[in-house]
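Technical note accompanying the year-one report. For the benefit of new consortium partners, we illustrate the data format agreed upon in the data management plan: each record pairs a sequence with a C-alpha cell string. No post-processing was applied to the example shown here.
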Amino acid sequence: MFDVSLFLRHNFARVWALASEKLTSLEIGYVSSVMVTELLSPSVGPHQPLNHIRASILPGILKLNLSVDYITDAMVGTISKSLVSLTHLDLRDTPLIEPRITFDLTNSGLQQINQYGKLKHLSLIRSQEYIVTYFRRVNDLGILLMADKCANMESICLGGFCQVTDTGFKTILHSCSSLYRLRVSHGIHLTDLVFHDMSATALCMTHVSLRWCNLLTNHAIKSLVSNTHLKVLDLRDCKSLGDEALRAISTLPELKSLLLDGSDISDSGLSYLKGRIISSLVSLSVRGCKRLTDKCVYALFEGSSRLELQELDVSNLPYLSDNGILCLAKSRVPISVLRMRQCPLIGDTSIMALASMQVDEDRGHGSSLRLLDIYNCGGMTQLAFRWLKKPYFPRLRWLGVTANVNRDIIDALARNRPFLNVASHGEELGIDQWDNSESLHMHDYDDVDELEQWLLEGEFEDDDEEMIDAEINPEM
C-alpha cells in the first residue's frame, strides 16, 4: 500500500519496473491517466539509447482496477495493447471539470478495447461526485464497434454514457451471448424497448443493475424477469417503477438481493414478496420509497419464519415509526445490517426493541446486528445511548448516529467500545467507493478475533462510568 501521488511521473515507471512478473492483480485508488499511459507505453527507457525499447511492464496482469482523473482514448488503447493477458478491466474516473476531447473517451477508444480477445469483465464508470458529467463523445456506433470484439464478455458495467440509446444497449444484449452480469447507471436514453424481446435471446443473466435509468417502467421489469435465474437486481432510483414491477419480481425463485431505492412502490406492493421470495432474500433496500409505512414491515415479516435476510435498508421513510421496528424485532430475523437513517418517527423505543431482540436462544440480546445506522432519526434522545452500552449489541461494529445528540456520550461510547466504529457526521457506513452493488455480500464485517472474543465473553458488571458522567453532565 502506498500513495501513488507521491511519485514523480518519471520515477513512477521505474518503481513498477521492479514489480514481480508474477503479479496478476493490481488496484490503484487514484492515479492520473497520463501516468498510466506512460507506465505501460513500450517507449524508450530513461538514459537509454534510441534503439533500446523498454520491456513490457506487468506482463502477467489479469485484473486491473484503476480510479483515474479522466478515462481517455490514449489510456484505454495503451492498456489494451500492453496487457496481453488481461481478463478484467475496471476503470472509473472522477472529473473535476468537463473533459476536453484529448482527455476523454470517444468511439475510437472503445474500438481499441479487448485487442487480444481475452477480456471477460469490463467496467467503464464516469463518477458525478464533483460535477454532472458524462461520456458525451461516445454514441451507439462506439458501443457497436466495441461489441464486435466482446462476444465472449461475461460482465459489462457502463456508467454515464448519455449519448447511447436503446440501439447501443440492445447491441450488447444480442452480441454478448455469455453475458451474465449487466450494470448500467445514468442510462438517460435507456427505455423499456431494450428488454422487450429478452425471451428471444440466449442470455441467462444472474446480476442486473439499472440505477438512475428513469425512463424504465414496469413493462421493462416484466420482460427482464424472463431471466428466471436472477440473483441480484438493483433498480435504485428508477422512479417510475411501482407495484406491478414487484409483482413480476416476486416470481424470481433465486433472487438474493433486491434494491428498490426511490421507486414508487407501496405497502401492498411489497406484500407480493411475502411467502414467495422474502424467505430467500439476503439483502433488501427500500430507501426513500416515500409511500411506505409501518404496514410494509407487517406485510413482509409478521408471521414469517426461517428468513435468510441479513441486510435491510429502510432509511428516509417519513411514515416508518417505532411500531414498524417493534414488529421487525418480534420477527427475530437474523439481520446483521440495518439502516434506518433519516426516519423522523424512529426513536428510543426502536433501539430498546432491537437491543432486546433475540435471534435464537443460544445468542445474546441484539446479537445479530453488526451495523446499525440511526443517523438523524427524529425521536432519538440520550436514553437510546444507554441501550448501546455493553452487554447489548455485542457484535456491533459500525454505528451511525447524530453528533448533536450529545458529543460527550458519543466520544465515551467510542472509547469504551474499542471495536465499534462510530460515525456521527452523516457519512454512509461500510459503502465501498466502487459501490459494488452486484455482490451479494457488499461489506466484509470481519469475524471476531481471539482477543475480541475474550473481551466479549468477559463480565459486564461494571457500568460505563464515562458514559454515566456524560449523561449526568450533558453538553449545553
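Partners are asked to follow this layout when depositing records. Residues 221 and 245 are 6 Å apart (CA to CA).
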